[in-house]
Amino acid sequence: MRIVSRAGFALAAVFASASAVACDFVLQPDQRDIYAPGKYCLFADRDLPIEIRSDDVELDCRGRLLGNGAGSSWDAAVTIAPRRGVTVRNCRIEQWPRGVYVDRASDTQIVNNTVLRPQSVGVLVQGNDLAEGDGVRLIGNRIANYGNQGALQPVTAIRLQGANRLEAVNNVVAGFGGEGVVHVEHSADVRLTGNQVLDFESGVGSAFYLDRYSPRTRLVHNTVTALRPYNVRGIEGDGVRDATCIENVFVNTTPSNLEQCASKRNNIEQLSPSVP
């Protein structure tokens, strides 16, 4: 069995690629809001946040930094208002309270972004609580919390609220403890596929938390590696009893709680020797 460690997070960043699509507009360093459809790019680092207030917007940060969040009066580095057809890709976000905030948007994709040391949550999706879902997808993002374990409040990598049928695919989360790395609330039929939770630290939380109002979650091909096998739970919450868990790999999670899943198949659990 191959154990993925911190090196896996670094490798994922190396293979990140910028969008090949040309820009319609270059977002100026002092421009905060986007009010018109089109393809927008960044060509310089910036301190100001970005708020997308239009349908049919693609924002490609091209690896540029949205920094200075810790000293900002703004809450989120990138906010997507209740709009449709938005894509945010290739942004590097550091030390904001919230990295990316999806506020009741639909047909929206958050792709290949890096969020470092969020103060509250890396990616927050507030959905419309529609039975058919909003068509939101989180794909290939990297969220790391190294050096931020002393934050004053619990820090969550991905938090979903009322985001039915959301898909989170191939995201990498590293260096977290707290209440839950991926926290699912009031969100039915969520699909978590191919995500990696690396260097999960001992604490009070779990890698995946599903509340009682989040039925039929599907966890497939996810990997969790905890630093030490000390009271680090893989998955928990009342929603686990209605979840499907297939071919996940949980290392040093004690307990993993995979046996509580309503449907389970070919999951792998491994404990390493205790570290003094």
Automatic annotation (TrEMBL):
PROSITE patterns: PROKAR_LIPOPROTEIN. Residues 1-22 form the signal peptide. Keywords: Signal. It comes from the Bacteria. The keyword Repeat does not apply. SUPFAM superfamilies: Pectin lyase-like (SSF51126). Pfam families: Beta_helix. Residues 77-226 form the Right handed beta helix domain. The keyword Signal applies. This is Right-handed parallel beta-helix repeat-containing protein. It comes from Lysobacter firmicutimachus.
